[in-house]
Write a structure and sequence with these properties.
InterPro entries: LeuE-type (IPR001123). It is found in: Cell membrane. By secondary structure, the protein is mainly alpha-helical. It has a domain of 131 residues. Helix 5 runs antiparallel to helix 9. The longest helix is centred in the C-terminal third of the chain and has 33 residues.
Length: 201
């Protein structure tokens, strides 16, 4: 793989990761509610979900999803329902004191599901990967480079979103502000779910 091809993939992946979606909302909501350190298992969970998508795209199942309308619809509605449920849970979350100490491992698996139930991610990867694969080079080495780049870029972008959420922690210091924050992020999650439900290929 040439440097120019890799740089083009890097820029494309960076733009895709920077576009705010469910992962960014999950990361920022986690920071605001539980503290910065708690974002670490959440970000790791998002990357595991992304890795699963990368593996599916690598073995060709992504192409099956891209062709199967039924499979796409099933995953889409599961993802939409999960985001709406997360939003409703956040909306009704009780006001509690910030706990910015140790990271909370229980935040890992919900983050995995956030990425796993987003069919747009794997469709993006299925459409993206072939544009940067060269038949003259070994397939798996190219997939390893592209997949590793994608994971690293997304992780760094999520760290950036977590950093952006830090000032909100300093603002949300009263029960009324925390309740407002819960409802804002809850509404954003539900809006993301509705948007996903209305998505088409």
């Amino acid at each position: 793989m040439s440097l120019s091809v890799w740089l083009a993939f890097l820029v494309t992946t960076l733009l895709f990761s920077l576009f705010p979606g469910a992962g960014a909302l999950n990361t920022m909501g986690t920071v605001v509610r539980h503290g910065v350190r708690s974002a670490l298992p959440s970000i790791a969970g998002l990357q595991l979900g992304l890795l699963c998508h990368l593996l599916l795209a690598g073995v060709g199942l992504g192409a099956l999803l891209a062709r199967s309308l039924l499979l796409f619809e099933i995953i889409k509605w599961c993802g939409a329902a999960y985001l709406v449920w997360l939003g409703w849970k956040q909306w009704r979350a009780p006001v509690q004191a910030m706990q910015a100490g140790a990271a909370k491992p229980m935040l890992f698996w919900p983050a995995v599901l956030v990425n796993l139930t987003n069919p747009k991610t794997i469709l993006f990867l299925v459409a993206l990967f072939p544009q940067f694969i060269h038949t003259d080079y070994p397939l798996w080495s190219q997939c390893l480079i592209l997949g590793g780049t994608c994971l690293l870029v997304d992780a760094l972008v999520m760290v950036g979103y977590a950093t952006l959420a830090v000032p909100l922690m300093r603002i949300i210091t009263t029960p009324a502000r925390q309740r407002l924050q819960n409802r804002v992020f809850g509404s954003l999650f539900m809006a993301a779910g509705v948007t996903l439900a209305g998505a088409s290929r």
